[in-house]
Amino acid sequence: MAKIVVPMGAPGAGKGTQARLLQERLGLPQISTGDMFRALKDAQTPLAEEVRAIMQAGKLVPDDLTARIVEERTTRPDCRGGYVLDGFPRTTAQAETLEELAARQGHEIVAVLVDVPHDTLEKRMTGRRSCPVCGEIYNVHFRPPKTEGRCDLHPEARLVHRSDDNPETIGKRLDEYDAKTRPLVAYYESSGRLRRVDGTRDPEAIYADIEKVVSSES
Ligand code: AMP
Hints:
single chain, alpha/beta, Rossmann fold, 5-stranded parallel β-sheet, two-stranded antiparallel sheet, binds adenosine monophosphate
């Protein structure tokens, strides 16, 4: 059975980095709701304006809109062999939507908790920078690029700092995670679908553990 891999963990735990590695190395499409909303919010429409305000406040986009974009994206042909969901589900209602989608698509869900203590998360988020061309993720504290502010692979591109990675919004995003998303860890654990990996190590060590989970036969 093909797998829907759900990296879980607080904002800044490294879910996006791991989802990118799974895409590069196993060819599993990385479906990032955060990236999809970031692309959407730059349009000049009332919906975009609404999404922009929600994201800047560190809140979650409503479940019905989120479910629609995930369903639309994951029913494309490249997802038939499984996919990685980066940043979804984040609420109980979204977890229910995913159960229905998985059943319809004939996929099984595997959740992987990338476990990182709260105090490390804030530093990771304030230091995070990414390349606007290839999406590579750097960190000024932990993984600086070779030349300050420039992507190693695309030196013509200035690295960008997400506008919601500021201390105030980060605090709100961590609160949203604790209130709405953390309960999903217990949800997947109680149904025997949760694996835990120690997210304080370097990305390659974390990836090795995740790849084992993803490649194992169930
Ligand atoms: P991320 O890049 O995953 O940290 O997401 C950035 C922002 O996009 C979040 O703070 C939310 O405002 C919004 N977002 C991303 N994924 C979801 C989701 N599954 N449900 C609701 N809002 C989301």
